[in-house]
Every structure is written in C-alpha cells, then in structure tokens.
C-alpha cells in the first residue's frame, strides 16, 4: 500500500542514491500530497488526552496552566506544531544537506514528472486491446520508462522552467503595481493634508487684503 511509511522508505533510498552520485545541496521539489507531509509519529494530535497534552507542552516549553481545558492546550500545541515541526522527509533531507520545497496547491504544471508520467501513460494506453491483462500493463509500463527519450525529459523540465519564469514575472508586475498605487495614494494624501493646512492660514500675515 502506498502511504507515508512507504514513501519515507522510498525517500531514504532516494537520498542514498543522491549521496552515491556525490550531489550536495540538492533541492527536491514535491507536490502537496498528504503522504509527502507526514509529521513524526510523536507529534501531538487533537485526540490526545489532557495528560499527554500537558506533557507535550512541558516538552516544548509552552507556558500552561494545569487547570486549562484540553481544547485550550490543543490550540497552543497546534500553533506550536505548525510553526516548528517539519514533515519527516523535510528533516531527513536537511540532515543530509538538502532542501525540500513544495509547489503551490493545484499547480501540477510546475511538476515536470507529471508531464513525463502523462507521456508514458499515453504510450502504454495506445497499446491496449481487448486481450490486455494487468501483467501486460506492468510490462509495457516498465518498457516505456526504460526507453523514455532524454529529450522528452529535457523538454518537460524546460516547459516547467518557462512556467516558473512567467509566474515570477507576473508576481513581480503585480507587486510593482501595488507599490506604485500605494505611492500615488500616499502622495495624494499628503497633498490633501497640505491643502487643509492652507485653509487655516491667516493670509493677512502675508500682505493679503483684510
């Protein structure tokens, strides 16, 4: 069954392979699948008893009052966990000198592997006929991966790189527009403030008609 434990074991082999290639400071990009973000087994959970939550608060150095409700303790622990406890694989990578980053939700187009997978599935699907059995699908899948052209992988990565560049340019443009709008608003506010001040001036002090 493909779950968090299975993925952690696979990720360990991946890190070993990266080390065997003598690669350092690698950046591993993943999507937001739940099994990618599993926390350590001893991470506090909302279903814990009050006694366990009290012990966890003491372990983490969180201020508490033993008279507090369990819901209050959980609110404190939940905030602490969100800010300080990282997914298992993130810590595994960090311990080996690498970083794990997650793409924004609903942006599979930022994952080259998704396009590679689509290419391979298409090749396997076109071989289907009424006599196809599951072992045939597995055999064809392995064969298509083995003969996957490096140019396809290169193109998929290039497509993602261009997508990231376009998104970065868009975000920078939005930020610049916001800054410009803020500056214009600030200037307008200052002008209105100056005008209000002039309304209070005694023009007679400057030789004006009384």
Question: What do these coordinates show?
Answer:
By secondary structure, the chain is mainly α. 61% of the residues lie in helices and 4% in strands. The protein has a domain of 93 residues. The longest helix is centred in the C-terminal third of the chain and has 50 residues. The protein is flat, with a radius of gyration of 29 Å. The chain starts with a helix and ends in an 11-residue tail after the last helix. The model has no long low-confidence stretch (mean pLDDT 89).
- How would you write the strand order of the largest sheet? 1-2
Largest sheet: 2 strands, parallel
- The oligomeric state of the chains shown is single chain
Distance between the termini: 93 Å
Please bin the fraction of helical residues: 55-70%
Mean residue pLDDT:
89
- Give unreliable regions as ranges: none
Beta-strand percentage range: under 5%
Total beta strands? 2
How many helices in DSSP terms? Answer: 7
Radius of gyration: 29 Å
- Broad structural category: mainly alpha
The coarse overall form would be flat
SSE string, helices as H and strands as E: HEHHHEHHH
Give a short overview.
The protein has seven helices and two strands.
Features:
210 residues; flat; 7 helices; 61% helix; 4% strand; mainly alpha; two-stranded parallel sheet
List the helices and strands and how they pair.
Elements: H1 4-20, E1 27-30, H2 50-60, H3 70-84, H4 88-95, E2 99-102, H5 112-125, H6 134-146, H7 150-199
Parallel strand pairs: 1-2
Helix pairs in contact: 1-4, 2-3, 5-6, 5-7
